[in-house]
């Protein structure tokens, strides 16, 4: 009996796995993209409604420009791989929020927010592409879905979000907000090392495909690393560890990223 249960469990886990693009890592996936995207759209609107969104000016235009170029790069990559279905249901949005937080994030479905406080660290459009490419990569790699799947399994909420919402809506919403990792006000869980590495890797490629110089990622993370030693580290670093090891890994990945880079 034990062997049958163990076998059934293994088959279930195998069936509930997906593959991260580019890296090929297998990940737990108990939550559908439709469910994640729907919840993300709802929570994103709540964030915008409670924030001061900057809709005009060069900085707001830059955020939308960088976001749209990376969006096009992501869509191009999936077309080339004949995997357009993985982006089905994406309704991209790129907004600049007037807030001193040195932070940015991307919810499932392409819901991006950049806080004005991080712009002095990004310094220019290329630096902003490093940040937005990294955050969009988290969404494209389904890291939030992976974390929510892990948390739901650990808390025994089941494998169907709609059922979990009916049984325990507050608990399910809490798990989702933790999983999306959008900062101290919502996300409470840190991305794992493998997820951070993947976001760095994919982000470099997506920004390069969008026509931004991936070499700028080293300078950006060096600036973030210097900020880590400040009295009040950026909120961005609370879920994004920045250190020599990370920079060294990015340097090793740059030759691959440069093959995608065509200046505009």
List the helices and strands and how they pair.
Layout: H1 2-15, E1 17-19, E2 26-28, H2 33-49, E3 53-54, H3 58-80, E4 93-97, E5 104-107, E6 111-115, H4 119-122, H5 125-140, H6 143-155, H7 161-167, H8 169-180, H9 193-209, H10 216-228, H11 244-258
Helix pairs in contact: 3-5, 3-9, 5-9, 6-8, 7-8, 9-11, 10-11
What is the structure about, briefly put?
This is M48 family peptidase. With 264 residues, this protein is of the alpha+beta class.
Structural class by SSE content: alpha+beta
Low-confidence stretches: 1-15, 158-168, 183-189
Helix content class: 55-70%
N- to C-terminal distance? 62 Å
Element pattern in H and E = HEEHEHEEEHHHHHHHH
The tally of domains stands at 1
* Range of strand content: 5-15%
Mean pLDDT value:
78
Q: What shape does the CA trace take?
A: globular
Count of helix runs: 11
InterPro entries: Mito/Outer_Membr_Metalloprot (IPR051156), Peptidase_M48 (IPR001915)
Pfam family, one: Peptidase_M48
Family: Belongs to the peptidase M48 family.
Domain Peptidase M48: 71-253
Describe the structure.
By secondary structure, the chain is an alpha+beta fold. It has one domain (18-260). It is built from eleven helices and six strands. Strand 5 (104-107) and strand 6 form a beta hairpin. Helix 9 (193-209) packs parallel to helix 11 and helix 10 (216-228) runs antiparallel to helix 11. The N and C termini lie far apart (62 Å). Mean pLDDT is 78; it is low at 1-15, 158-168 and 183-189. Its cofactor is Zn(2+).
């Amino acid at each position: 009996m034990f062997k049958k249960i163990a076998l059934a469990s293994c088959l279930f886990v195998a069936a509930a796995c997906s593959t991260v693009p580019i890296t090929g890592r297998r990940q737990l996936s108990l939550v559908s993209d439709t469910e994640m995207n729907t919840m993300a759209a709802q929570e994103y609107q709540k964030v915008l409604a409670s924030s001061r969104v900057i809709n005009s000016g060069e900085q707001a235009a830059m955020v939308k420009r960088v976001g749209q170029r990376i969006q096009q790069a992501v869509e191009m990559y999936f077309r080339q791989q004949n995997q357009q279905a993985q982006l089905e249901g994406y309704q991209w949005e790129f907004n600049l929020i007037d807030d001193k937080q040195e932070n940015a994030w991307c919810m499932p479905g392409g819901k991006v927010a950049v806080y004005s406080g991080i712009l002095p660290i990004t310094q220019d459009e290329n630096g902003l592409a490093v940040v937005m490419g990294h955050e969009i990569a988290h969404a494209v790699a389904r890291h939030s879905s992976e974390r929510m799947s892990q948390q739901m399994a650990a808390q025994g909420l089941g494998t169907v979000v709609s059922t979990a919402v009916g049984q325990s809506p507050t608990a399910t919403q809490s798990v989702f907000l933790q999983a999306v990792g959008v900062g101290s006000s919502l996300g409470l869980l840190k991305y794992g090392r493998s997820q951070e590495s993947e976001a760095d890797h994919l982000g470099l490629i997506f920004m390069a495909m969008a026509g931004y110089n991936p070499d700028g990622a080293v300078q950006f993370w060096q600036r973030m690393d210097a900020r880590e030693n400040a009295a009040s580290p950026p909120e961005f670093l609370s879920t994004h560890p920045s250190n020599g090891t990370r920079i060294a890994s990015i340097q090793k990945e740059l030759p691959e990223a440069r093959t995608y880079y065509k200046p505009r």
